[in-house]
Hints:
It is a single chain. By secondary structure, the protein is an alpha/beta fold. It has two domains: 3-142 and 305-318, 3-Layer(aba) Sandwich (Rossmann fold); 146-302, Dihydrodipicolinate Reductase, domain 2 (2-Layer Sandwich), CATH 3.30.360.10. Helix content is 27%, strand content 23%. The chain has a seven-stranded parallel sheet. A seven-stranded mixed sheet has the order 9-10-8-11-14-13-12.
Amino acid sequence: MGIKVGVAGASGYAGGELLRLLAGHPEFDLTVATAHSQAGQPVAAVHPQLAGLDLVFTATEPDALADVDLVFLALPHGQSAALAAALPSGVKVVDLGADHRLTDAAAWQRYYGGAHAGAWTYGLPELPGQRAVIAAATRVAATGCYAVATTLALAPLVAAGTVAPDDVVVVAASGTSGAGRAARAHLLGSEVMGDLSPYKVGAHQHVPEIKQATGATTLSFTPVLAPMPRGILATVTALPSVVGTDPRAVLASAYADSPFVHVLPAGAWPHTAATLGSNSCHLQAAVDVDSGRVIVVSAIDNLGKGAAGQAVQCANLMSGLPETTGLSVFGVAP
């Protein structure tokens, strides 16, 4: 028997991607998947891509998850904390929701509302020293999808003093799976296809998380809904602190030992299709010849490195496994 794992909230897009990754993981033994309205249904009836996975959704109750070694929580924001608190202390938990990401209770209240559940270890292994912290943790808060795309592009530059932290601008386009699986009129195919639309302009909930993870002090963030199922392309710009520093070289040095972060060869730019199905992030940087601003473009699969893949990467570290176990660094094409 391997390491027994379960997924709570497994009927959504991130939950389905978790099931796919865990079903093929060489060390994790997927034993339970819970859902709310889909309880009692075969997993493959909800996720047809998982035909052959002999598993039935059970109700999302603590007792259903009490006998596993590690639980992934893929629940809506605000619902993870109560379930996690009801699990036995010996069960390790990776939360894909936002409940435990923020250290600042006031920021939680401002962007999410309700009581702040407290901060867990932040689940981004590529931050300096964070692999060891995650490996020693029993409770880990996985990153938000926009947050990981932006943080990987920005954090090394702020830490190195290459860019100023007080004038960061981010415009990021995401596929529709980032909005969840619930039926909504504005996410219908006929509404999305052939269209780009901004949303939550000036008040997106990932802003405090990005600031917390990168050291940015002022951040303007504009998310854009793109007519594709999955993927994020983030364009991050900031004023240079030191003129003449090569931002690409700073990023390449920072991620030299990170198997999932690829700083592309000079002149090659990230695009979302290249990261599809992978746990990788592709980066490229340049300095704008007119404004002098540093520009970094970041591409990820929002359900991979932005959600399920990142969670499995953290779970690998928490379980004493190589962080790459069961995860692909290569995308699927065409």
